[in-house]
Amino acid sequence: MLIDRYAYGNRLRHTEPALKAGIALTVLTLCLALDHPWASLWALGWMSLLTVAVARIPARVFGRILFGESTFLALATVGIAVTLTVATPPDATLWRWHVGSLWIFGTAEGLSAALRTVSRALGAVSAMNFLALTTPLVDLLALLRRWHVPGALIDITAMVYRATFLLLDNLHRMRTAQECRLGYVTARNSMHSAALLGGNLFMKTFQQGRRLQYALDARGFDGELRVLPAKYRSNPGLALWGVGGVMAMLGMWRIPV
Amino acid sequence: MTPVFEFADVWFRHNGQSDCALCGLTVSIPSGEKIAVVGRNGSGKSTLFLHCNGLYRPQQGQIRFNGEPLSYTRAGLRQLRQRVGIVFQNPDDQLFSASVAQDISFGPLNLGLSQAETTRRVQQAAELCAITHLLDRPTHALSGGEKARAAMAGVLAMEPSVVLADELLSAIDPWARLDIFEILQTLHDHGTTILLATHDLSVVRYWATHVIVLQRGTVAFSGTPQQLLRNPSLLEATELSKIWWTVELD
Ligand SMILES: Nc1ncnc2c1ncn2[C@@H]1O[C@H](COP(=O)(O)OP(=O)(O)OP(=O)(O)O)[C@@H](O)[C@H]1O
Ligand SMILES: [Mg+2]
Q: What is the pTM of this model?
């Protein structure tokens, strides 16, 4: 998994996760609460800068992830910018289009509402990208533990995370094994192979889960997955960046739209 | 000396299986030795190991550990697992934590050790297994041999007096194998009993001080490597002559 790989290999890997989560959550909250396009766009640019320039995540990777998210957002907000009616549209439309008995049109308000939603969402999403790309899930879980989220919940998340990799690994191996034996040469046998794979993948992962349980028991598991907390470095520079960015964001908020 | 383990007529059948995996297995496993456990696929090596750790329970028969019958109570199992460590055949079954250091710390923390002591043991086990440079890595981003060594470190950090390793060597390159044997030698020098499931003649011949041959869920032989290798009819009977046809003793 791409995100996981960068989370382990970026410049902010050893930075105190509370700081990174603090910045990301503050920016996220501000984007949602201020609901101000300039502040949101500022958040987008600034979080991207932190991710690319400070954490040194390749711009290409960050761009690809953001592009995927924007496409999804754009599709979701088309409904806000575009109106579809059978009635004749009001006079104040930016553009209109008559198809059969149907009117498709957009108004200035609709467009600005859509842009507002997109920028707000992009700001929020870029804050989450920053956190996800710089902080491995283990660190986030450890942080949640420190914030007194119930242990069972965290253990389950940790196991699901691990199981996901096992599942993907199994999937990959089994699929390769099938391909080597010409399992996917025709559409017909592809279907057959995929069905076999699905059934076996489940059984295999289930059995692996049981063996994992044995292995945990063998090392004295008693219901709680205790492991050492990771060691982190404080990062005053990033803290300054964080405070500065948030101040700037609040400053933007004063700009009238 | 009291044997570490004594199996007396132990029977075990896996869920839904009609054939027995252990079929009246009787053996006594000597303490402080380097023991090679050999036998064909499906002969019961892994099943035997899982019994030693109390993960499987005999459906018939009895197991003694240091002269005492195994206790399957919570406290009994806890005590047993504190002293008997098992490195699994497939390290993926064992590594669960996202980082190697955290995975190694799991056992010691379960023993109730302090964080400081646990940190020390993690470091020590990692040094022993030559994986200090991997401590920060996620466990899913390791090669097969690195995984095997991480799994081994997770067991050694608990400082058990008996180490069971189930085909530990299969994913490990010849150079790293030398390292592993060095680790095992160090453990042996400290009095640890080591059981290694293997198919490798050279392990039996040059490393082991005791050999147990399993055949269809029973013990076909238990004794020194010399006794085994100097006995052609026994090698024949246990089918070992087929794979070890190059055996030449000096
Ligand atoms: N989870 C299971 N469910 C059902 N049967 C099993 C299971 N595990 C093992 N068996 C059966 O029990 C018998 C002994 O298996 P075991 O895994 O102990 O053999 P092994 O000597 O370790 O073999 P290998 O060299 O292949 O690892 C085999 O016949 C096997 O088919
Ligand atoms: Mg086995």
A: 0.74
Tokens of A80: 């806000």
**Strand partners of residue B219:** B214
Domain that holds residue B147: 5-242
In a domain, B171, yes or no: yes
B119 within some domain:
yes
Please give, rounded to a whole number of angstroms, the shortest distance from the CA of B202 to a CA of chain A.
29
In this prediction, the answer to ipTM > 0.90 reads no
Q: How far apart are alpha carbons B226 and B150 in whole angstroms?
A: 33
B180-206: burial string, b at 16+ Cβ within 10 Å, e else: bbebbeebbeeebbbbbbbbbbebbbe
- Let me know if residue B248 belongs to a domain: no
Q: In what order do the strands lie in the sheet with B60-65?
A: B22-29, B5-12, B60-65, B68-69
Each residue's pLDDT tens digit, B39-69? 989 999 999 999 999 999 999 999 999 999 9
Report yes or no: A167 at the B interface, CB cutoff 8 Å. no
What pLDDT, in 10s, does the model give residues B194-240? Answer: 999 988 888 888 899 999 999 999 999 999 999 998 888 888 888 88
User: Ligand 1: residues whose CB is within 6 Å?
Assistant: B 14, 17, 21, 39, 41-47, 89
Atom of ligand 1 nearest to the CA of B89: 27
Q: Is A169 in Cβ contact with B98 (below 8 Å)?
A: no
For residue B37, which ligand has an atom nearest its CA?
1
| Chain A residue numbers touching B50 (CB-CB < 8 A) | 214
Which residue lies with its CA nearest to atom 3 of ligand 1?
B14
In a domain, B114, yes or no: yes
| Domain ranges (residues) in chain A | 2-82+108-135+232-253, 142-218
Q: CA separation (Å) from B44 to A104, B19, B30, B88? A: 73, 11, 19, 14
Q: Give the count of domains, chain B.
A: 1
| B103 interaction partners in chain A (CB closer than 8 Å) | 227
Residues 183-222 on A with a CB inside 8 Å of B are 208, 211-212, 214-222
Ligand 1: atom nearest CA of B50 is 18
CATH at B111? 3.40.50.300
Within 96-135 of B, beta carbons closer than 8 Å to A belong to 96-99, 101-103, 105-107, 109-111, 115, 118-119, 122
